[in-house]
Amino acid sequence: MITHEQCLYWDQEDELKKFKDEFALPNNVIYLDGNSLGARPKKSLEVAQHIISKEWGEDLINSWNKADWWGLPTRLGDKVAQLIGAEKGEVVISDSTTLNLFKVLSAAVKIQAEKFPERKVIVAEKDAFPTDIYIIEGFIDLINQGYQVELIDGADDLSHVLAKDVAVVVLSHVNYRTGYFYDMESINQQIHDKDALIIWDLCHSVGAVPMDLNQSNSDFAIGCTYKYLNGGPGSPALLWVNRNHRDEFWQPLSGWWGHKKPFDMAQHYEPANSIRRYLCGTQPIISMSLIECGIDIFLQADMQQIREKSLKLTDLFIQLVQQECPQFGFELITPVNHKYRGSHVSYRHEFGYEIIQALIARGVIGDYREPEVLRFGITPLYLGFEDIWNAVQQLKQIMLNSEWKNERYLVRSEVT
Asked: Which residues are annotated as modified residue N6-(pyridoxal phosphate)lysine in the UniProt record (predicted)?
């Protein structure tokens, strides 16, 4: 039996507990949705006020040079690079994950079309976050060159589909629904053995699990900064390109920020000889600047310690649900094996939506994903072991009292 006292002891021994003070969290709330929107770093308010009142308010347009607004996408990219196994000059912060996927998919397909013109298959997961599939479908329709998308159920299907003429594979490093964690290095090897290229979606893994894009010989990667990196709602996304591919083809959204000499105001496009070629137009400076607050916290912590605590917390959540709520029909869909588990825990339940709404009313914020999936994001920098204990106790009370049957929890909000 796991006890409350045991959880308190683990919190006392936690080497990462000091980082919770870096975040502004409401009182009486257990936040288990950092895999959807990370908590606000306390420093972000001060930074936002400085940018708005000083850099914008006083220095005005001079801040493009004085505050180095122009260099922000690559300066932040160099910081993020330290979390994903990349080098300086390999990462840029720009636009959204959706747009960045379009950019790197275009580049990858162009590279493959020149080397292997017969390859017309783009592979993705059936259970990928839908925008990845939408972008692939839209891209195929746009270029109209006979490409087709092949959807797989998971890693076990990959060897079979790679027997076909695959050009590019797009995979989520950690699946957004189930929390399945792909073995990046072995998957890359499998794909490269068949002369295909890999694009990794890091949205649910950057800041949550250790990774090394260069050592694993990845090709392209994209991902958001507003989940585990705590960059703020809708903060611009990351984009990484293996140096071997960076200059082979420039992305099709050829805006002036990606030009080799943007202030020459030339009539024709010439891409920058750097990762800047993956930029498009003027970036949202205020939103982008706030990303640094979250990244700097991560750079003070040890990623391996974060991973170890994540696994302990997710283990605890799984064990406590089994211990406290065995009779309520929760079906675990997150891998038990640490090797294949990211940093969130998901359960399937017929009344998942209603249960999540009842939890939120009790101050435990998780989220719901169709079909019938309750997700609980585990963010080690601001969650402790007692938080997990208390969250499961609230879940137990909701089920014992049938609180989820309240009619108000049946009403679906536009954003679920």
From this structure: 227
213 within a domain of the structure (yes/no) = yes
What integer pLDDT is reported at residue 368 of this predicted model?
A: 97
Whether residue 364 lies inside any domain: the answer is yes
Whole-Å CA distances, 328 to 100, 120, 324, 377, 401: 42, 47, 10, 21, 12
Domain boundary among 299, 333, 364: 299
- Dist CA 21 CA 306 (whole Å): 16
* Of residues 402, 388, 345, the one with CA closest to residue 208: 345
The reply to whether 375 belongs to the active site is: yes
For residue 131, say whether it is annotated as part of any ligand binding site: yes
Residue 297: phi, psi to the nearest 5?
A: -65, -45
CA 332 vs CA 9, 335, 336, 351: distances in Å = 27, 8, 9, 14
Does residue 339 have an active-site annotation?
Answer: no
Whether the predicted pLDDT of 223 surpasses 90: yes
User: Is 225 labelled as part of a ligand binding site?
Assistant: no
Q: Is 116 annotated for ligand binding? A: no
Query: How many domains is the chain partitioned into structurally?
Result: 2
Determine the average pLDDT of the residues in 243-254. 88
User: 331: domain range?
Assistant: 4-41+302-410
How does the average pLDDT of the chain come out, rounded?
A: 97
Least Cα distance to 120 among 157, 148, 150, 142 occurs for 148
Could you say which of 40, 120, 362, 375 is catalytic? 375
Q: How many residues does the chain have?
A: 416
Judge whether 317 counts as a catalytic residue: no
Active-site choice (23, 31, 226, 368)? 226
Active site residue 226: yes
Cα 19 from Cα 300, distance rounded (Å): 9
| pLDDT computed for residue 222 by the predictor | 98
Catalytic residue among 177, 227, 246, 369: 227
Last residue of a domain, one of 272, 299, 326: 299
